Amino acid sequence: MISRVSEKTMAKNSSEDHNIVVKPMEIDDIAPAFHLGEKLFTLSAMPNLYRIWDEYEIIDFYHDSSEYCFSAFADGKFVGFLLGTVIEKKTNRKYGYLVWTGVNKEYGGMGVASMLFEKFKEVMVEENVTMIIVDTQADNHNAIEFFKGKGFKNPQDHIYLTLSLRDDNSRKRNN
């Protein structure tokens, strides 16, 4: 699973113009988070993410790791989310895994993703996590720079391979 940060580098408004609040995700936040993800993780923008973003992805995170899922609101409007989890190894090491981050483009550059990340990091420290892990597509330069700015190091490219089990002609016949 791959994290996506959707903050623009230049914002039209500053966060000082909006009351931004980050809080633990609640059940009523699932639908707005899912629909925001649908807008952000599109086939053209993020082909690897598009293939795995669906309603079950967010429901599973909320069900299995709700204490590591957060929502962001600006003036009471849902504007972003973060979905994470903790991986515990037999060696008694715990790793935080930040899997999904999304911010409404209208609120990009206002620090929403940073606030979501800081809340996640705070919980990871409380959980005695050894390290936070994040991954993203190699060409997602905004996300890479965002995470480098948060102290992440040693980025490595991922290679994604796909095998289509249906050719274009069979898809046309079945549609």
Chain-wise SSE layout:
Blueprint lengths: L19 E5 L5 H11 L6 H6 L2 H11 L3 E6 L2 E12 L5 E10 L8 H15 L4 E4 L6 H9 L18 H7 L1
Parallel strand pairs: 4-5
Antiparallel strand pairs: 1-2, 2-3, 3-4
Task: Produce a short descriptive summary.
This protein has 175 residues and is an alpha+beta fold.
Explain how this protein is built.
The chain is an alpha+beta fold. It has one domain (15-174): Aminopeptidase (3-Layer(aba) Sandwich). It is built from six helices and five strands. The chain has a five-stranded mixed beta sheet with strand order 1-2-3-4-5. β3 (77-88) and β4 form a beta hairpin. The radius of gyration is 17 Å and the shape is globular. The protein starts with 19 loop residues before the first strand and ends with a helix. Mean pLDDT is 84; it is low at 1-13.
User: What average pLDDT do the residues reach?
Assistant: 84
**CATH A-level architecture:** 3-Layer(aba) Sandwich
Largest sheet at a glance?
Answer: 5 strands, mixed
Distance between the termini: 29 Å
Structural class by secondary-structure content: alpha+beta
Number of domains: 1
The percent range for strand residues is 15-25%
- The CATH superfamily title: Gcn5-related N-acetyltransferase (GNAT)
Fraction of helical residues? 25-40%
